[in-house]
Amino acid sequence: MSSELILVVCAANVCRSPLAELLLRRGLEGVPGIHAASAGTLAQDGARICPLVTSWHDDEAWGAASTAHRSRRADAELLEQAELILVSSRDVRADVVLAAPEVRGRTYTLREAVHLGEEFDSASQPRHVGTVARYATHLDRARVVRGAVPESHRRWWRPRRADGSDIADGHGQGRWVHRAALTEVLGATTAVVRQLGGRLA
């Protein structure tokens, strides 16, 4: 079975989505057949990751991976390669679907994936389909049953137009807001990793 791609998408691909990508890589190392990448709907190709993401962990592997990151645009070709697309917010999801309408059914915000994937059991699923494809199918079916992300997930710093499924962009909004946004990325990504059978320390 070929490797399945989880693509994480935000706007600029220098903060939220690369943090989630690096966390997914780390947490799913022991789960065969899955790889993670990231991109941005408004990204300028070649920009470096934000320093706060680089400093998130102090081990050598994290430093090397974060230093090597360069932003890239989420074009239709890349989006179509992904078995699952996790986005930072509904606005980003709209841009993703506009660029590649056929990926609508496998595109979720990080918070939606956490909410819809709560009962996914990677160990009990049939093996003729990859783990990520099975997870994406589970999310699609659960969307009808579980509905929207509860409003209780809102945070004090989130813009008024954001709902419980969004992780707003904290980049350039001050250190506390920036860190709060990345902490939300950490929490959501950790939950997704666990749902997929991985582990983040």
Automatic annotation (TrEMBL):
Coiled-coil segments on the chain, per record: none
Top-level EC class as recorded in UniProt: hydrolase
GO MF: protein tyrosine phosphatase activity
Domain Phosphotyrosine protein phosphatase I, residue spans: 6-112
Record InterPro entries: Ptyr_pPase, Ptyr_pPase_sf
Domain of life: Bacteria
EC code: 3.1.3.48
Keyword Hydrolase: yes
Pfam families: LMWPc
Keywords assigned: Hydrolase
Protein name: Protein-tyrosine phosphatase
Organism of origin: Brachybacterium fresconis
